[in-house]
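Team,

Forwarding the record for the chain on the shared tracking sheet. I've put the sequence and predicted structure together so nobody has to dig through attachments.
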Amino acid sequence: MFVQVCLYFYCKCLWRCLKFVVRKLTGRCELQRICYNTKPGAARTMKIEASLKGSKSKRLQTSVSVHPDAIEKTIDDIMELKRINSDVNPQLGVSLQACLLQIVGYRNLIAEVEKLRREQYDSENPQHEEMLLKLWKCLKPSSPLKARISKQWCEIGFQGDDPKTDFRGMGLLGLYNLVYFAEWDTEVAQQVLSDSLQPKYSYSFAIVGINITDLAYNLLVSGALKTHFYNVAPEAPTLTHFQQTFCYLMHEFHKFWIEEDPLDIMEFNRVREKFHKQILKQLQNPEMALCPHFAASENLINM
């Protein structure tokens, strides 16, 4: 243990000495080198994030957790602390701001998603009930729901006659994601539902949707989704980006399930874990954007 501690501090001191020498040779600090030598997207933002967090300056360390409204002032503070002339380096401030918007936005997105996950479905809440009924109408537009408590809910993959009990694990987050999928990607959602009812590939659509919500949630909280969001969100990633990612994961898992050709639903955990590992492997690529059709705007290219 003592040797490991000594080695850690030795490497840390060596790294800082190396950074000092490189700055003297290039005339640029680490933040400048990253922005000028790395193209916009996850590769740049993650390097900026690591540099700020690893700085010996408390002001730089805390810059990744400021309020979005304080980002402009934070950029000014960074420029001043690093003794960078903004008139000589005007593009640096723009690049740093874009990175900080993504970094701070990701932290705020986790908080927003966590709040939805912790809020339980309440059948006495009209908004909750309205969302649940909207899910049915989007998935089964030609089949009216005969009653709020009904075995019909099993037709879209709930376990019993009242779906509220199925949302316990993921709270409102599971419902939000299912409704978003059914409302904004209706054709795909209806096709996935139809396929899930086929005897050969049978699974419970809604329950799997809540399970994939759990997968997406864990990818987000672990930081694995930074690669994706920093590549597709030109500024702060939002709940909509998260829901779009859920739609992608839901569709991809459905295809993966069919390709795996499981014997029955008892193989679900095995298939899910294999799918999870595949997504994690993809996200290790700093160029990865899980949903290409939700790519960042052209504005990002010039930052």
